[in-house]
Design a protein that fits this description.
Type I phosphodiesterase / nucleotide pyrophosphatase; Alkaline Phosphatase, subunit A; seven-stranded mixed beta sheet; Alkaline_phosphatase_core_sf; 3 domains; alpha/beta; four-stranded antiparallel beta sheet; 37% helix; Gyrase A, domain 2
């Protein structure tokens, strides 16, 4: 209670006490007056006059006035005693207020304790859920099947826990292995049945993530048919790192990633952007250097078409393929092949002489369904689609008129050893890049490169190797571009790196490792009027593909050789 309030309260008490004292004095005076008018003898306390109960005061010897048995003591009343009574009443109010406050505090303590216990319980539940999350996610990925693929299975083979899907089937059903006789029953087409095609168009089809090892374990009838009717390679070495965008752009430029600029699927270049940029999205023209095959072909007077080939929509030169629909990952493979056939059926003046096309399988299956049964299932679907393409080409009289090449960008490896940069190096100034080849850009870190390498050197063991950009092995051609990063952490097979646990994709398989590792090696198949039949090439690097397209005059003749010489030496054309 503030001082002002207390003063007001005291004034009120004094006023009430004065009024009470005046009333008592008045009653006492009346009593004394009544006593003077009465005889000194003691009188009855009450008498009945005319049938009424008349109250008669009685005066005692002590000078008190008795009224109906109640004695009002006049001589014994004290102002000091009245003040004590008022003070006691005042403090009684304070005691009640303090008691109420104590009860409220006690209730608050109880509520706080209950909330704290509940929050602690919830925190433990969250910790258990976080600990369980990786396993739950991995189990979900293990059991995950795209409904779009389950609908292609015969009803008798569909798993019992997969609900039936009521949808129109747009893809062919895969055939059992014993029925894959395509390579034996279909004849090779050696003659072109179309008189309006004077020069064979080149169709390059990339199957993302098709490992060379798959051919040792699975049957793909369409590819065996191409082996019988054309040429193949024992194995193909991708560039370093064996990633989708670097490898695809190497195949069409004849340049190593350090020269064409696409050093990984994610790139940091402060001269272009102040953050890590994904090559899968955004306007990234400035990242793509070199001279891709469609630019060369267009300058020679031809028309080029691109169907989702990584990088065909971007180039620093500003040139684009004449036909390049926007990427649609949901477009079924059959529809993509129909588009290719339709382009080849265009009139000669508008028909593209070069077509580059991309399919995202079996890469997706390799990342999330690395088990043999899953890979075999996806390859069966892919085989059925490839046979559909060849049958469509044959029906239109085009199969013997075009040079069809099927390639891939990399293989696939199971991963089981994940590390997070946030747990290894504590430097907010760096910019790390995730992948099986971890890259660290010094950026705003004040630490020298040697200091940034130390946390990795202390516990590298057999899990990774760490390099400065300048000390990378020469054969990997990963030194010249600053986009590579300042520190390169090369994971061994099965090892992968993420910036933090929040960036973990829980992949079951990944790629990007050294191209000399057999799981990273891939395939090459070709057939057509310009391809020798029954040829098996020794192991080749896919950087040599551009020399095959041009040097063997598959698509171009009498081109200027200066750009080609520059690309062979690893310089930007």
């Amino acid at each position: 209670m503030s001082l002002h309030v207390e003063e007001e309260y005291n004034k009120l008490l004094r006023l009430e006490f004065s009024s009470l004292l005046a009333l008592i004095e008045e009653r006492a005076a009346k009593g004394r007056s009544a006593v003077k008018n009465c005889p000194p003898a003691t009188m009855r306390s009450s008498s009945f006059v005319h049938g009424t109960d008349e109250v008669t005061p009685m005066v005692t010897t002590e000078g008190s006035v008795r009224n109906n048995g109640a004695i009002l003591s006049v001589s014994s009343f004290s102002p000091e005693k009245g003040r004590q009574d008022v003070s006691a009443a005042r403090f009684r109010h304070l005691y009640i207020l303090v008691a109420i406050l104590l009860v409220m505090v006690l209730i608050g303590v109880i509520v706080t304790a209950v909330v704290a216990v509940r929050l602690g319980h919830m925190e433990k539940q969250v910790e258990r859920a976080q600990a369980q999350l990786p396993r739950n996610v991995k189990e979900a990925l293990d059991n995950f099947k795209l409904p779009m693929t389950w609908q292609f299975l015969p009803q008798s083979t569909a798993p019992p826990n997969v609900p039936p899907i009521q949808a129109e089937v747009h893809e062919p059903q895969p055939q059992p292995k014993e029925q894959q006789q395509y390579q034996r029953t279909k004849e090779c087409r050696t003659e072109c049945l179309r008189k309006d095609i004077s020069k064979p168009p080149l169709v390059i089809l990339s199957l993302d993530g098709f490992a060379r090892e798959y051919l040792d374990r699975f049957t793909v009838g369409a590819l065996e048919y191409m082996t019988k009717c054309g040429a193949t390679a024992e194995r193909v070495y991708p560039p370093f790192p064996s990633r989708t965008f670097p490898s695809h752009y190497t195949m069409v430029t004849g340049l190593y990633p350090e020269s064409h600029g696409i050093v990984d699927n994610n790139i940091f270049d402060p001269s272009i952007s102040d953050k890590m940029e994904s090559m899968k999205r955004g306007n990234v023209d400035a990242f793509y250097l070199g001279d891709p095959i469609w630019n060369i072909y267009k300058r020679s007077g031809g028309r080029a078409a691109c169907l989702y080939w990584p990088g065909c929509a971007f180039n620093i030169s500003g040139l684009r393929p004449d036909i390049s629909p926007p990427y649609n990952k949901d477009l079924p493979f059959r529809n993509r092949f129909d588009m290719i056939v339709d382009w080849l059926l265009m009139p000669p003046e508008t028909c593209p002489g070069l077509i580059t096309a991309y399919l995202d399988q079996p890469d997706s299956a390799g990342h999330y369904q690395i088990d043999d049964k899953d890979i075999e299932f996806q390859l069966a679907i892919l085989d059925t689609n490839l046979r559909y393409l060849m049958d469509r080409l044959d029906d239109k009289g085009l199969l013997g008129c075009i040079n069809l090449v099927i390639v891939s960008d990399h293989g696939m490896q199971k991963t089981n050893n994940t590390h997070y940069f946030s747990n290894i190096i504590k430097d907010p100034g760096i910019i790390p890049a995730s992948g099986v080849i971890g890259r660290i850009h010094k950026h705003r870190s004040p630490a020298p490169v040697d200091e940034l390498m130390k946390p990795f050197e202390c516990e590298r063991g057999n899990r990774w190797k760490v390099y400065q950009r300048s000390t990378m092995p020469t054969r990997k051609h990963y030194q010249k571009s600053q986009r590579v990063g300042d520190v390169i952490v090369e994971g061994m097979l099965g090892t992968s790196f993420y910036r933090s646990p929040a960036d973990d994709w829980f992949l079951k398989g990944d790629h990007g490792y050294d191209y000399l590792r057999s799981p990273m090696q891939t395939v090459f198949f070709a057939m057509g009027p310009s391809i020798k039949k029954g040829v098996v090439l020794p192991a080749v690097q896919n950087i040599e593909y551009l020399n095959l397209w041009i040097g063997e005059r598959i698509i171009c003749q009498n081109l200027v050789t200066k750009p080609l010489h520059a690309q062979k030496t690893g310089q930007q054309a």
